[in-house]
Structure formats: C-alpha cells, structure tokens
Write a structure and sequence with these properties.
251 residues; 5 helices; 21% helix; 26% strand; binds fe (iii) ion
C-alpha cells in the first residue's frame, strides 16, 4: 500500500508540474534576492537583508522577552497551498503519526515585539507523504492544514503529527503568516535529519522507507532553510517543535 502510494507520487503528472512550479518559484525568489542584493549596503544596514534569521537569546528567550529578531527566510509556498483553511488547533483529523506540538511565535522585526492576532497558516503532508486536497488525496480532504491566531505573546500552537516525506523534498512544514490583511511571511519549517531518522523508525513511518532527500541536498532548504530549523524536544511519546518567525508587518 505504501509502495503503491510512493509509485503513484512518482508517476503522478502533478509531480512534474510541481517541480516546474518549484523551479519557477525558486527563480522568482532568486530574482528577488538579486534585486535586494543590488540595494547593497542599504539593505545590509537596514533590515538585515532577505536571507537572515530571527534568533533567540538562549532557551529562555521567548518567555523572558530577551530576544533579538531579524527576518525569517522567505521560501517558496510550493504548489500545495490551498486558501481558506480551517481555524483549528488540532489538524490531524485522527490520522496516524507521532504527535507533534508546534509552537510558532510571530515577532515584528521592526520592534522586536510579538504580534498578537496574526494568522499562522500551516500545511504539510501526512505521515505517509500525502497532502490533503490534492491528488492522490480527494479534493474534499483537509487533513494537516489549519490556521491559528497568535495570542498576546505572539504564539500560535498546533497539534499535529511528525510529517512524512515525499519524493524530492526533505521533511518540511509550510507556513504563511497573515497580519493586517497582508501575507507577511511565507516559509518552510524543517527538522534535524538525525531526529527524522530516529522518528521514522516508528510506525507508520517505518513502513515507508527510502526517504530520498535530506536537508543538505534539498533545493529549497539550501536557500536559507538552516535558519528555519525547528527547535525540537521530546514530550511524552511525541515532540514539541518551536520556532520564532520575524516578519515585517508591511511587505
Ligand atoms: Fe511541501
């Protein structure tokens, strides 16, 4: 069954279309980056440039407020974004996988303060590498997609499962942040490969071996993804993954 899924994905015409779209997205990003680079010192001295990171000052950074912040790297949304996702914390719809709690904090890079009321929109494939809403899943399916609004501390929390993998990409979660009516950030969140190796020993991941792309060789990850690695800790039988995303309110 899992092998059939994998072959389906390989032979799916959408897969080719997806890679084309990703190539186009990459091209646009590179063009954007190129034009930013042309601004030279202005950008470097100002907002810190396109490919910079938000960093915490130690593990207590968020709660203590002792934070520094710079932009989270923009990365392609890919072809599987669907608008009008549901507002909900638990996005699993009961599908199998190792529980993953996501704690995503949105910070305004111009003030270094958390943004309350931002809509954090995430989507990822299920434990078997399938996205809801697009083939081979039925168009009506919505698993592993959802939106949460940030609270006063800029925090949005999701309950999901550790994502599976699909051909040609490293393990990732897509994210968009909406604030003040604008999309202020589009990115992807990643996992340490060694952690994925470990997590994939368990069911249902173990029944689908052959993950073909790791972070270091992933075409999207290579474009700033290191700055979007989740901080992951174990929690009971699952994990908690945290990330703070520095964004501009206006784009
Ligand atoms: Fe994806």
């Amino acid at each position: 069954m899992e092998e059939a899924d994998s072959q389906h994905l390989h032979s799916d015409r959408r897969y080719g279309a997806r890679m084309d779209e990703q190539a186009q997205d990459m091209e646009r990003l590179m063009t954007r980056r190129g034009s930013l680079l042309k601004l030279g010192g202005l950008v470097a001295a100002g907002v810190g440039g396109w490919k910079t990171e938000w960093a915490e000052a130690g593990t207590g950074g968020i709660s203590s407020g002792a934070i520094s912040c710079v932009l989270a790297p923009e990365q392609t949304e890919g072809p599987y974004y669907l608008p009008n996702e549901r507002v909900r914390r638990n996005i699993t719809e009961g599908r199998p996988g190792t529980l993953l709690t996501l704690r995503l904090t949105v910070v305004d890079t111009s003030t270094c303060k958390p943004i309350q009321g931002a809509a954090v929109d995430i989507w990822h494939c299920d434990a078997l590498g399938v996205y809801s809403g697009v083939p081979p899943a039925a168009a009506s399916t919505t698993f592993m997609r959802g939106i949460q609004r940030t609270g006063a501390a800029g925090l949005a929390t999701f309950q999901t499962v550790y994502p599976g993998w699909y051909p040609g990409r490293t393990v990732h979660i897509h994210v968009k942040v909406h604030a003040g009516g604008n999309v202020v950030h589009t990115g992807q969140l990643y996992f340490p490969d060694t952690l994925t190796d470990f997590a994939y020993r368990r069911a249902p991941y173990a029944s689908r071996p052959g993950r073909d792309t790791r972070n270091a060789v992933d075409a999207v990850f290579r474009n700033g993804g290191r700055k979007s690695l989740l901080r992951v800790r174990r929690s009971g039988a699952g994990y908690v993954g945290s990330m703070a995303m520095g964004v501009h309110r206006s784009v």
